[in-house]
Specification:
By secondary structure, the chain is α/β, with parallel strands linked by helices. The longest helix has 14 residues. The relative contact order is 0.23. It binds copper (II) ion. The site of copper (II) ion has 6 residues, from loops.
Length: 144
């Protein structure tokens, strides 16, 4: 904890040096909606090119309610991404159509991933690829 604080403080100090690069991280948390196959957040906005720390918080208490967040660059690739993930216990196969993904969060668990948002503004679909969840567990990351 102390170490994190020191790192954060040094980052702030470094940022005061007139440098044009930013170390700011946009933190987003997406939870599951209780025991439903739904996210509690179905839309969030980030700046183009921002560094994003995305956390999936699994709020479920029911067996098999395992979730992830997979942000997709090309929506037309979703059927294949889901198909291959479902053949792989819900874990997506890494692909150039996937911008970022968390691992699968077990009941009560939190998992995070850090990534850089696209520089191209738009709406980027995110889905849960655990078996049979993708139809209802979805939302949009808006890049502006
Ligand atoms: Cu899910």
């Amino acid at each position: 904890m102390k170490k994190t604080l020191i790192i954060l403080l040094s980052m702030i100090i470094l940022n005061c040096g007139g440098s044009t690069t930013s170390n700011e991280v946009t933190a987003i948390t997406i939870g599951s909606l209780g025991n439903e196959m739904k996210y509690d957040t179905t839309e969030f906005t980030v700046s183009a090119g921002a560094t994003v720390k995305l956390t999936m918080k699994n709020n479920a208490s029911m067996a098999n309610m395992i979730h992830n967040v997979v942000i997709v660059l090309d929506e037309t690739a979703v059927p294949n991404i889901v198909k291959y993930a479902e053949m792989n216990d819900g874990n997506p196969i890494p692909s150039s159509d996937i911008l970022a993904m968390t691992s699968l969060a077990d009941l009560g668990e939190e998992v995070s991933v850090e990534f850089v948002a696209p520089t191209k503004p738009g709406r980027y679909l995110y889905i849960c690829t655990y078996i049979a969840h993708a139809a209802t567990m979805r939302g949009y990351m808006i890049v502006e």
